[in-house]
Specification:
Elements: H1 3-14, H2 21-32, H3 39-45, H4 52-64
């Protein structure tokens, strides 16, 4: 397990969530990003470890608990 994943586990648990492999992978990609990411970018980056519904479901969950911020963009893409 990477040191980043180790640091993310307590954040998930504090939000009342289990630290699943998909959630940890998603948060790691977001943490390593230099800016906002589209859901499509995340699906592409996580294609080997998560399917599309898993990425979207976890994005919704992480947004609901405040660990991820959804940012809108002109043209409607988030």
């Amino acid at each position: 397990m990477s040191s980043s994943a180790t640091a993310l586990r307590p954040k998930l648990r504090a939000a009342g969530l289990r630290a699943t492999a998909a959630r940890l992978a998603l948060l790691q990609v977001l943490e390593e990003s230099s800016g906002p990411c589209t859901a499509t970018h995340l699906v592409d980056r996580l294609a080997l470890s998560c399917d599309r519904p898993t990425v979207y479901r976890n994005l919704a969950t992480l947004t609901r608990v405040g660990l991820v911020l959804e940012v809108g963009r002109a043209g409607g893409q988030t």
